[in-house]
Amino acid sequence: MSKFNDGKPYHGSNAVSHGKLRGATDTDYFYFFCPKCAHRQIMRILEYGLHDEKAQNPYNEFFKVQAKSAFTLVFKLHCEKCRHTDFVKISNMGWQGGRYDEANGKVIPWDTAPSVSAKQP
Ligand SMILES: [Zn+2]
Predict the structure, then answer these.
(1) Domain count, the chain
(2) What is the pTM of this model?
């Protein structure tokens, strides 16, 4: 099996960070929209990789419903229209809930979330 991104470093650019990468499902398949093109141009997924994996989910101790494991998948996205290539990760080790603030593109965690400092509103 070949290494993800031919073993080269990968990280999503500013174009996909902080809420700028959007997408939607058609049936139950999820599609990413190019962050540079208008009209929800659908991107191809060129490859995926396992970025991280753990047998135990580090958040399970804080919740009644348990995740089976912990994982982070990485996807290499490409827009055929404008030739933009980028990366996105999907993980169950990031935010575990809370509210997504559209204006700032940041997740506002629950007050009780384990990684939250005391200064939440
Ligand atoms: Zn594009």
Answers:
(1) 1
(2) 0.85
